[in-house]
Each structure stands twice: as C-alpha cells, then as structure tokens.
Design brief:
It is built from 16 helices and 18 strands. With 483 residues, the chain is α+β, with helices and mostly antiparallel strands. The strands form 4 sheets. A 7-stranded antiparallel sheet has the order 15-12-14-13-17-18-16, sandwiched between helices. The chain has a 5-stranded antiparallel sheet with strand order 5-6-10-8-9. Strands 1-2-4-3 form a 4-stranded mixed sheet. Strand 5 and strand 6 form a beta hairpin. The longest helix has 18 residues.
Length: 483
C-alpha cells in the first residue's frame, strides 16, 4: 500500500516541480541514503528537488494530504543523521535553491535561499569588507539551510557564536504547507530562536536573512606544538584565564595530526603530542598586545615550537590540517565515528585522560580534534568495518565519551545536532518531564508528526512521531506546578 501511495504521490509531485525534479529510480535514490554520518543509511521512497519556496510549500501540502512523512536535506554534510531519509517518505532536497536574493551592506545583512553554500555568502560580500561569520569545517560545501537546521558553529564560534547569532529572520514552510515569516524583531515568543537548531523537525526554511560581520582590521595566527595534549590544554586555560578571547583556539592530538599529514601534508612540527592553533582578530593595537601575551603563555605552558603566520598564505597552511581533519582520518582508518560532546574548559585534562583510558582499555583508537576554547570535543572513534564486532565496540566507546561529557557538566552535542545518532542518549541528559515538555513544543508546530520524524527524541513520544497521534490533552496539561 505504501509503495502505491508513494508512486501516486511521485506522479503528483512531477506536476509541481517537473519530471527532472523528482527521483524515483532505485539506483539514483541511493545517492541520498545518508548524510555525512555514513553508518546510518536509508533509501528514500521519493526524492523531490524544488526550485522555489512555493514549490516546497506545495510539496509539503501534498505529503500532508497523503499522510506521508518527509525530510528536508541541503548539501548532506550533517554529522548526526539529521537528514536521514525515510524509506516510506519523501526527501525534499533544497540544493537547487541557491540564489543570493539581496545584499544590504548599509543594513549589514544578506537574504539567501537555503541551498546557498556557506562560503559563497562570504565570497559575495567580501569585496564590500564583510563576511559571514559561522564557519563549519565543511563551509566550502555545506548549505546555509543546513546550518540553520543544526545551528552549526565552526572554528571561530568561540568569539563570534553559532548560526543562531547570525540569523535575523527565516521564511519557513510550516508542516501544513503554509509560508510563514519568523523574525528576531517580532514581539512575543522567540519562535525564530526555537526554529534555529530544531534539526528540521518544525518546518523547512526557504529563505534566510543573515547578519554580515565586518572584516577585522587585522588577523594574527599562530601554531604552537606541545609534547602532550595536557600541556596544550594548560595553554588554553592560561590564555582564557588571562582574559584573552581569541577568534579561535583549536587543538589536535598526535593521531589526528598523523591523519592530516597523510592527507594534506600540512607539515606540522614533527613529534608533536598536540598542536594548538590560536587566531586573534580585531583592531591592530589590541591584537598586537594580546598576541604577545598568547605567545608567552604558550611558551610558559611548554610549547617547543611556535609558528606565526606572516601572511594569508601561511595562515591558510596552518589551518589546512585542522580544516581537513575529519576527512583525513580516512587515511589511517577504514571507518570512523564522529562525536560532538561539550565539556567545561576546566574539565579538559580529566576528560581527555579518561578518553585515553577508554581507548587503551577497549583497544579502539580515538583521534581528538576540538574547539578547545569552548570545550567542544570532536573525538573520532576509529574502527575497521570489515572486522566483525568492530563497529559495535566503536559505538560503545563513542557512547562512553558522551557519558563522560554529561558527568562533567557538559552536553551530548555542541554543533552537530542529535539527529538519529544520539537520540538514544537524550534520556541520560534529560528527565522524562524535560523530554515531554520539548515534545509539546514540537507538537505545537507539527501535531501530526510528518516533519522529519524519528529524529532528536529516542522513541515515539506523545503526538510527535508517526504513526501514533495522541488523543486528548497532554498528561501534564493543567499541572503547572511541575514546570
């Protein structure tokens, strides 16, 4: 029955977007079976590629009328399975919606469609002396719509914040197929704040107004090499403790350095147990003063070599290894899991030591790459997917790392989202009441539960997931004392 429903729906969608905008061929459908997290896969029932907001709205209305679930997808670079399709549903791909609709330099903003590539925004406004601050490592290929869904960050989020801090408004298609405007300037509840980072569970964005940031007067970047990751961590604590807020503080351990060298020949100092990349930007006198402090603090913490970028070319070379780190791990391991936990900066030495102990005890290698300045860890858990039981052991280590983050007062995600990959860990961080309250918000947007179902929450809950639709009032309604 579902096969016939999808076939009929596919035919109707062709009338909306054209035959070249609908994919039903089984071989072509496999192109979309996963996002950047490849260990979760599902072949979508139908793929549709709309070219306008009106087409997106019409597609959603058709899905709602047929009772068919749907998932939005941008460039597919997500790392939590947030865009994992449904075999019984429609995958709405926004990659054809790639127009920069408006650039308003006096207003320091731009209006873009969701398929616009992150870095293309900066390229468009750079001649005017501005750029788009959120910079995920995948910024050359990730889309702004996906950044909005996951509230993406990047290396410079320590100083400049996440996507949420740079989005002024969103045009969205609601789960009933209407176009609505969410704005930071609208009185009342901050619905824009709820929508950004909701992982596509509340609707689909079709137009985004982003904040533009003025290019700083000067930028200074250094790379410091340490014998151990603990020494690098001490340097991070010293820098932040001195009142310096760099644009970025990134760290890589020996294993991730090995991978980067194999992939892109970044030529980091030989024998380093860790490297620290520190970047300062702003007014030239301020940067010069703080940069001298950073250099001194790194040496005091035991840096055996410090390299200072003399120009943009040398700065790009320093960043080359860090920006390629995730993909580079493929050079030293057949497969790997990417995690995204957050801890307080002060807990870095203890948590990193515990991760080393987990790795040694399990025999599962872990490469550490992270935003050291705000404690956002990206441990890469390596395994051989041809070896029986290897993936299960890697997943156990991955879960134990998330447990460490929670135990030390952190979170199971900083910027990659929950998706399907970490939904089972949500009850470890939140109570049943917490989860039910979140789900009530989701029900307010999508009472039928067709919009990206099966994500974020660990099991079907209340009215938020297909096929169960809650009847009657929520069990906590009228019990205000619980909240």
């Amino acid at each position: 029955m579902m096969e016939s429903t999808l076939k009929a729906l596919g035919a109707r969608l062709e009338t909306l977007v054209g035959a070249d905008g609908v994919v039903t061929d089984p071989v072509r459908l496999r192109t979309y079976e996963c996002d950047g997290l490849t260990n979760h896969r599902a072949t979508p029932g139908v793929v549709v590629l709309p070219g306008t907001a009106e087409q997106v709205a019409a597609v959603v209305r058709e899905c709602a009328a047929a009772g068919v679930p749907y998932v939005a997808r941008g460039s597919g670079t997500g790392l939590s399975g947030g865009a994992l399709p449904r075999t019984d549903g429609v995958l709405i791909v926004t990659s054809r919606m790639r127009r920069i609709l408006e650039i308003d330099i006096p207003g320091q903003r731009a209006v873009v469609e969701p398929g616009v590539i992150n870095l293309d925004v900066t390229r468009a406004v750079r001649p005017y002396g501005y750029y788009f601050a959120p910079d995920p490592s995948s910024q050359q290929i990730c889309s702004v719509g996906g950044n909005v869904a996951e509230n993406s960050g990047g290396a410079h989020c320590l100083k400049y914040g996440f996507t949420a801090h740079h989005v002024l408004a969103c045009e969205v298609v609601t789960p009933d197929g209407e176009l609505a405007e969410l704005s930071a300037d609208t009185p009342g509840y901050d619905l824009l704040g709820v929508f950004v980072g909701a992982e596509g569970t509340l609707g689909i964005t079709t137009k985004i107004t982003v904040r533009l940031t003025r290019v700083p007067e000067t930028v200074q970047t250094l790379l410091a090499a340490f014998d151990s990751i603990e020494a690098g961590g001490a340097a991070v604590s010293a820098i932040i403790g001195a009142g310096v807020v760099p644009a970025a503080i990134e760290m890589m351990d020996a294993l991730s350095i090995e991978a980067a060298e194999a992939a892109v020949r970044c030529e980091y100092p030989p024998g380093a147990g860790s490297v620290l990349i520190v970047e300062l930007d702003g007014p030239e006198p301020e940067v010069a003063s703080q940069f001298a402090d950073v250099e001194r603090l790194c040496r005091d913490a035991g840096a055996f070599e410090i390299r200072i970028a003399a120009d943009d070319e040398e700065r790009a070379l320093i960043w080359k290894g860090r920006k390629s780190a995730f993909a580079a791990v493929g050079r030293i391991s057949p497969a790997y899991l990417v995690q995204d936990g957050v801890i307080p900066r002060t807990a870095l030495p203890r948590v990193l030591a515990s991760i080393d102990a987990l790795s040694a005890e399990s025999g599962v290698r872990v490469a550490n790459v992270f935003h050291a300045g705000d404690g956002n860890l990206h441990p890469l858990v390596l395994f051989d997917d041809a070896e029986e039981g290897a993936e299960e052991r890697a997943e156990a280590v991955s879960g134990a790392i998330l447990d460490l983050c929670i135990e030390h007062g952190g979170s199971i995600t900083g910027e990659h989202g929950v998706g399907v990959d970490k939904s089972r860990y949500m009850p470890r961080m939140f109570t049943e009441t917490d989860l039910d309250t979140m789900q009530m918000v989701r029900c307010g947007f999508d009472p039928v539960g067709l919009c990206n179902p099966g994500k974020v929450f660990p099991t079907p809950r209340l009215c938020g997931e297909v096929p169960g639709v809650r009847k009657g009032p929520h069990p906590y309604e009228g019990k205000a004392d619980l909240f």
